[in-house]
Design goal:
It is built from four helices and no strands. The protein is mainly alpha-helical and about 90 residues long. Helix 1 packs antiparallel against helix 2, helix 2 runs antiparallel to helix 4 and helix 3 crosses helix 4.
């Protein structure tokens, strides 16, 4: 895909998965799982925006800014994992 950059594309892919799940009426079966997938997509979009907002890293410091980015990336992966497990279970 590689339209914008790694994590932004991943966030768009997760959100598109939720859209296609709604279109195929699969979201009604696993609603809780798709809510977690949507949350993961939002976190990945936010994580991808860290590299764009460079002026904020000057105020906070690079190490804090990178740490925040890694924290949101890990949370996005955890939300995606939980959502996937809910979808597989249901």
């Amino acid at each position: 895909m590689a339209i914008f950059g790694g994590l932004i594309d991943l966030g768009i892919a997760f959100l598109l998965a939720a859209v296609f799940g709604e279109y195929l009426k699969f979201r009604n079966v696993a609603k809780k799982g798709f809510n977690w997938i949507i949350l993961a997509g939002i976190f990945f979009l936010f994580t991808g925006s860290f590299s764009i907002a460079t002026s904020l890293s000057n105020y906070l410091g690079t190490s804090i800014w990178t740490g925040l980015q890694q924290l949101f990336e890990i949370l996005g992966w955890l939300f995606a994992l939980v959502g996937t497990l809910f979808i597989v279970y249901e």
